[in-house]
Each structure stands twice: as C-alpha cells, then as structure tokens.
Amino acid sequence: MRRVMCPSCGGKTKRFGRTAAGTQRWRCLGCGLTFVNKLDNSAKRLDEFLGWLLSKRAQADMAGGGRTFRRRTAEFWHLWPLPPVTGELCRVVFVDGIYLGRKACVLVARSEEHVLGWYVARSESSGAYKALMARIAPPEVVVTDGGSGFQKARREMWPRTRVQRCTFHAFEQVKRYTTTRPRTQAGVDLYALARELLKVETSERAAAWLAAYASWCAAYEGFLREETTNDEGRTFLTHERLVKARNSLTALVRQKTLFTYVDPELVGRLGPLPATNNAVESTNAQLRSMLREHRGLSLERRIKAVCWWCYMHTECPLPAAQLIKVMPTDEDIAKEMGMVGYGDRARVGPQRWGDGLVWEELHRQTPWQRDWD
C-alpha cells in the first residue's frame, strides 16, 4: 500500500480514527495536522470521457446513465488539448482543413502514420497555415488540396518543400465546371483529359498528358475566346465555365505542382510518393463521423472534440494523469490572453492558442451559465 504523506509538511502519518461518515482519518507525526486522504480519480474520469468521445456510444449507455456521466465529466470540456511540438522529420506531410461552422475551421497536418499538428482558425488563411507549419519540421513533400492561403504560407515557412496538388481534387475542380456530360466537344475532351490525371503513374505518362493538354489548349484557343453580348450591352465570355476549368489546370501546370509525385529525382531518392490527399481526407471523414455520432454539441465543444481526436491520434499521446496537469483550461487561456494588449494578441496569442476565434467569440464574459447539455 502506498504510504500516505502529510499534505502540509510532507512528513510521515499514522491512522487517526474515522470520520462520522466512516472515512479513514490521518494524523501527521511531525506537525500534528489531521486530514482525510481523498483519492484523486480525475485521470480515470478523463479516460472515461475520452472513451465516450472517441466511440459511438451514447451518454445514456455509459456507467451511471447520461446525467451521472455528464456530471462526472463536465470539467473536461474546459480542457484544451494542444498539439505537441515535434522535431520528427517526415518525408511527406498531408495538410487540409475541416470546417465546423461558417467561420470556424480546424487545419490538420498529418504524416502517413499519425497526426502531427492542428490549428483552430476562422478560415484557411496564410496566417493560420503559418501557425500550423511553425510546429512541424519542413518535409520533403507536402500534399494539399489547394486551400486558399497555403501557398503563401508554404513559401515563407517551408521554402524548400516540394508541393503536390492532390490530383483527385484537380479532377473534381474541372468536373465542377464541365459536369460529367459536357455539351461541347471542347468540354468532352477536357473532361476526358482530367480523368486521365487519375491514371498517370510514371514521368513518361505525365509528359504525354502535358503534351495532350497543350494540344487541347491550342486547338480550342479561338473557341474559348468567343464572346456574347446580352440585351443590356454587356459582353462576357460565351464559354466562361470552360475557361475557368482550363485556367485551373493551367495554373497547376505553371506552378509545377501537378506531377511532383512522379518526379524521377524524388522517386529515386524517396521511393513512391502519394498523388492524392487521401490520408488527411480519411482523417476528416473520421472526424465528421465522430461529430455525427455526438451531434448536438455546441460549436465550442465540436472544436474541442476535433482537437481531442487529433491529440489522441498523435504519435505519443500522454496518459490521462499527465494530460490533466499540462493541458490548459479555458481560465488559463483567458488569463494569459488578458495579460497582453489587443495589439500583442496577434503576435503572441495565435502561435500557441489560436487566432482569437475561441476566446473572443465563443467565450462571453457574462454571469449566465452557458455549459448546459
């Protein structure tokens, strides 16, 4: 049995009868303090909370029923799981964002094995991406779906990292403009070229695809320039949607981000590389599944649920007893954010806590209780 020490002086103790409720009382041999040694079961309750959150079980199915479970675990909704700072060098990193509300987004970065980091933001801005990348060592290749703000952040934070644009997202963007049943021959040919993107597996086939795309652009250049004048006298491109589809592919070809995964230099040195963002898309699918299973959570709790899922899928998550000691609470963050001026928050706050979305929009300083289930 573990020896009970005095909470005041740390000295040895002895049993000193029981309380009226029958609880063992202890007395310090040094300072004479009498006390009751209360067992701390917070780690066990946190494990219970995470076991529910990361499963499909309803609160009513937990031990004690729904109301008891909510009372036992309510305090853990005030914890904020922070991403670890990792020096791990990854060959490939997958980056994407999942929107939980109109102005609430969680950016997630992961390797092929586990989650590397996440960041809460209002949108996929360059500032948010820079804060996400700051915690992660620059990889050889980063795979992305082309979210806004990513390229600017990548050039500043990971200047030597090669970019692979997800070929499936490139195809989907073309399909959005042409549809699966284009009405013009130019649309039919471009849609067929976009589908061929998903079949490119070697540098030779990539070169053949680029040549075929250049031929398509030359053949339909005049067709895409056709204009139409409406009754009000305004002129616009006749095949505007087809032009947008063409421009989306042309931008990727110019940036040289479409066929990074078949670059002979990278493949010869690193082995086969992924062409799609499937790894992080599967993460997003699991996050959406978790939120569906626990639908009805407030926006704040949905954000925290995503953060907890990401943390528990990092390489080495801490045990529950240590998590309670090191993870900040709402009060800790509010206190730290209140110690700096408004102008300093953009410089100090975002890197560690987030970009202000959580603290200023989700936490209102009112006397009313806001955490009812």
Structural overview:
With 373 residues, the protein is of the alpha+beta class. The protein folds into 3 domains: 1-39; 42-83 and 283-362, no CATH class; 92-280, no CATH class. 45% of the residues lie in helices and 14% in strands. The chain is built from 16 helices and 10 strands. The chain has helices at 42-53, 65-73, 126-133, 150-157, 167-178, 185-197, 203-219, 221-224, 240-255, 264-270, 278-293, 299-312, 320-326, 330-338, 342-352, 357-362; strands at 13-18, 24-28, 34-36, 92-101, 104-110, 115-121, 141-144, 162-165, 227-229, 235-237. The strands form 3 sheets. Strands 6-5-4-7-8 form a 5-stranded mixed β-sheet, with helices on both faces. It has a 3-stranded antiparallel β-sheet with strand order 1-2-3, with no helix packed on it. Strand 7, helix 4 and strand 8 (162-165) form a beta-alpha-beta unit. Helix 1 crosses helix 13, helix 3 runs parallel beside helix 4 (150-157) and helix 6 (185-197) runs antiparallel to helix 7. The longest helix has 17 residues, at 203-219. The chain is elongated and about 95 Å long. The protein starts with 12 loop residues before the first strand and ends in an 11-residue tail after the last helix. The relative contact order is 0.13. Residues 340-351 and 363-373 have low confidence and may be disordered.
